[in-house]
Amino acid sequence: MHLGDVPDVVPGVPCATMCGMFRRSATDRVLTGVAGGIGERLEIDPVIVRLAFVILTFTGGVGLLLYVAAALVSRKPDPDPPPPPKTSTRQAVAIALVLTGVLLALRGIGLWLGDGVVWPAALVALGSAVIWTRGDEATRAKWLARMPSWIREDDESRPRIRTLVGALVIALGAWAFLSSNPPLDLFDNAPLAVATVLIGLAVIAGPGIWRLIRQASDERRERIRQEERAEMAAHLHDSVLQTLALIQRTEDPNEMVALARGQERELRTWLYGKTKPGGDGSLSAALDAVAVEVERAHRTRIEIVMVGDCPLDDGVRALVHACREAFVNAARHSGARGVSAYVEVEDDQVTAYVRDQGVGFSREAVPTDRHGIAESIEGRMERNGGVAVIDSAIGHGTEVRLRIPRSRAT
Amino acid sequence: MIRVFLVEDHELFASGVRNELGQEFALVGHASSVAEAVVEIPKAKPDVVLLDVHLPDGNGPEVVEALPDVRFLALSVSDAAEDVIAVIRAGARGYVTKSISPPELADAIRRVHEGDAVFSPRLAGFVLDAFAGQTAPAIDPELDQLTPREKEVLRYIARGYAYKEIARELHISVKTVESHVGGVLRKLQLTNRYELSRWASERKLA
What is the CATH number of domain A280-405? Predict the structure, then answer.
């Protein structure tokens, strides 16, 4: 069946009467929420509506047509639905009477599969309705109060009496079906008899099984939530709480800042780290690792701003090492509160700027036996085809500028 | 005295800011939710609103969009690109992280009050990133691309240079630096540039 071929609005009928007669249900749905929606609108249990559709389907397919029509004239589900109302017994009886009337009318017209099929089917449906419906709490309480104790004791959400009555009616339906179709007699056609009994049992046990499945999946969801919470608690305990304890024991303000900083970086990585582009083996990951290491070892603060990213190759690795050396120098000698780095990846080159606002220095004053700058920064960059420029003046901070061409191995 | 309004749901941080800024600025009000901010800010008529990006009943951009005539400086512990770009695109004049030092924060408030944009190094990096890449043709070249000079200024900001230092490096006046940054801010808010929208939608901003 092609639902799409049917126009959304019946021509000639004003939209106000046809569209939006009711909303399909967002919460209570088996197929499209039509039955749930009708149930909510008429304030009856959707199970009864569903069974009405099923019975009417047995009478020459009327139910199916009605269902499709209802689906077409209904509106989209309410995104924020109110809780579905409960059924009252009176409404259920009313529906049953209307349904019987419709069935008799259809029988009169001739849309009928035969007495031997439809009436037993209706009986089975009635039995299932008895088992499936939620019922009205107040009514139930009233009824239960009159019941003998062996029935009441079993109740948690569905009294045993309901299941018993339902099962009885279903069995009656099955028996009626078998006995009213002589060619399908119980003794002549054992497989059909067995099938009928099995279907009857499935209809009786269905609600219980359905409830068990729902419970199992609810429990699983809850367990997953608890595991996540436990994992988060464990992580916070191992990291944040430990660090907070350390901070409280620390006298040195620099140490406190460093501890807080390290913890902040770690927590950020944990919170957002999974979505970081590039992943391991990228320039950004390598730079972050270097920054963490230097921050820990030298009690400083390194801010890295990156534009673009690229995989590591020899040249890029040399740049990372040179950056590390620049971080260490800034942390050791500049006296500045922190170091900032800006790294930009372009198509043909990678540039990095490592800057501090510290005391600065003049090249001439650096003893020649200190290899940091000459060897670790300039030499390393030059060997890999790059350039290093160190710009510093006493009192004006230091900036190390690094540039390396990107290999075209791609 | 510049009138400052604080939108901040973390009481500890709010009182810290009040202590730091109380001498220098007139703190004219405080709100701790989007709903409260939208009602209280027009009453208090502040010059600058310090706005936390994450609020219990919504996010900073909602406040910015609801009050288009107010100057906002966004303030957050997050330095995630989506938070930064979203609040700037909504109309905030600047973005700084909460780890900023008190004098720097005071300076940023003064600059927003004077109508300038305040870009942290990280924000400059995000903008360069968003405008990087020449693959797709610009829809509106005037808005969809940064000029070489604007890029240059942004790079200096990303490198941690102050406006004064940038002016010295580029041999231009501080006013010119400010107007370049203002131009970038305008483009960021108005552009429909393909890369920026794609970049935004990848980060669920659009």
Answer: 3.30.565.10
